[in-house]
Design brief:
The chain has a single domain, classed as Rossmann fold (3-Layer(aba) Sandwich), CATH 3.40.50. The protein is α/β, with parallel strands linked by helices. Helices cover about 45% and strands about 10% of the residues.
Amino acid sequence: MTNNKPVVLITGTSSGFGRLTAEFLARRGYSVFATMRQIDGKNAAAAEALREIGKLSAADLQVLEMDVTLDKSVDRCVRDAIDRSGRIDVLINNAGFAYMGLMESFTMEQAQRIFDTNVFGLLRTIRAVLPHMHRQRSGLLLQVSSGAGRIVLPSMGLYCATKFAVEAITEAYRYELAAVGIDSVSIQPGAYPTDIFGKIQSGADAERELQYTVARDITSRVANTLTSSTADPMDIAEGILQIIETPVGKRKLRYRIGKGASGVEVLNETAIPVQSQLLAAFGLDDLIRQPGAEGI
């Protein structure tokens, strides 16, 4: 490719933040690989819509098949993107879904499923792209986390647990990759009216909720608050663009985007000196001074 803009690979682009971001970056001249499952199946219409947007706007927007829960699918997609573009500069880990319901009502199978997508899927894509970024000695890993990666909402316990894991993974990679010029950051959206609310599943073992009294209406109360949001999801796409265009060494570790739960910003700021003290105690404070380590 002759495009001088970074090459971006995005997971979970059939709808929501992923689709908006793919369109937004492509229209601004970025080379974008929009990935999703079943591009010839249930997501065929979404895949074709993105291809059509690319054609109409003369944008470099390509759609690739990727199921983040399958090693072979992830490896094949990343290899295909590298073959086509020669590089991947930015990986945006957006694929994910949510559950809503009392924790006890979710089966182990459901717990494994959400972790396989929201956490292990992220690990798969990072492992797949890192060898290429190491050869480039540059790159950006950008995880779409959540305010729920810092705070806990009852009835969303499993979702929060996956996002807490995303925050830990992002931060660990931040320290370990700083010296080689690869950034790892997370964005923490608040509540936005996206398709994720229409896809939220409840616990498969609903009978487990029958023994609860007051707590049984927690789910509806939380859902009503979240779905009442009128925030513009384009905030996320615009925020991602700003992060990409921020020079290496100037990016923060975490970006809170959107309103609600203002304490998330407080927790982020409070964690910075705590982590710095921890690293210093282990003789690792040199990591803080590495390029790309601002905001640790």
